[in-house]
Amino acid sequence: MNTELRFLFEAIARFDRYPAGIQKICGNEQGNIFFPGGQGIFDPEQGKISDKEIMIAGYQFDRRMDFLKMHEKDQTKSRINPAWANLLLLLFKGGIDPRHCFFTNVIPGVVVHNKIRKKSSPVTKRYFIEFSRSLFRLEVGIQKPEVILVLGLRAARFLSLLHPKLEGWATLQNFGQADLKMLAIIERVPITDTSEPTLVLLVHPDGRQRNIRRRKFRGFTGDNAEIRMLSDVHREKP
User: Fold this and answer.
1) pLDDT over 90 percentage in the chain
2) pTM for this prediction
3) What count of other Cβ atoms lies within 10 Å of the Cβ of residue 166?
């Protein structure tokens, strides 16, 4: 594994103050999986994220959200997850090669059981959230992405405290609000001292059919609105 990803996994390995119901996960899943469940890249032999111009940020790793194992010899045996298929299709329509992306989550853990009643102390929760945001900054600092595609409102609200430019995301209740307030694309956000990516808010692929019809952007609606967003912020390099 490349030094960049190893460094990130080591940072997670050292952290042990998880709230009740959240379990550490640290690259144990096989195949192309969102970081930190997996490496979050399509070229594990290269193992780099600093050569990827786009970051795709979800909210939380979920064991059911496995990527299609596109590089397996027998692709007919791959499990086609609808959410992942939706994401791949959107990237394709927007002219984005998944091999040029780093797929990550803003929360570095997995829910053990949604109905766990045991409560964590406020200090533990706050410490975990602070660690999650510092880890995300670390990822951005290493990768230096030109664009961050943010999947869903929960991820957007989580990231809203990273910089005043993102404060408008903190209270979003739906995508209609985001589009009306011109918050779908926020340009040049200095998340670190060395990285000022443009952030794009997209419908989470898991609920795409329910929510995509509400999108509006520069005269486009629905699926075409998000495709136009991607084409506006991303230009293929020669």
Assistant:
1) 62
2) 0.89
3) 20
Q: Is residue 198 part of a domain?
A: yes
Label residue 118 exposed, middle or buried (CB < 10 Å: 0-12, 13-18, 19+).
exposed
Q: Is residue 238 part of a domain?
A: no
| One-character DSSP codes across 40-65 | --S-TTT--STT-SEEEEEEEE-TT-
Q: Which domain holds residue 22?
A: 3-233
Burial of 4 (0-12, 13-18, 19+ CB in 10 A): middle
Judge whether 228 and 220 are in contact, CB under 8 Å. yes
Q: Is 185 helix (H, G, I), strand (E, B) or coil?
A: strand
Query: Which one-letter amino acid corresponds to residue 187?
Result: E
The amino acid present at 118, given as its one-letter code, is: K
**Confidence label for 89 from pLDDT (cuts 50, 70 and 90):** very high
Query: Region 183-194: what's the mean pLDDT?
Result: 96
Give the DSSP H or E segment for 199: strand 198-202
DSSP state of 195: B
Tally the domains of the chain: 1
> Is residue 223 very low, low, confident or very high in pLDDT (cuts 50, 70, 90)?
very high
CATH of the domain at 68: 3.40.470.10
DSSP state of 99: G
Q: CB pairs under 8 A, 24+ apart, for 190-194?
A: 190/163, 191/137, 191/140, 191/162, 191/163, 192/137, 192/140, 192/141, 194/141, 194/144
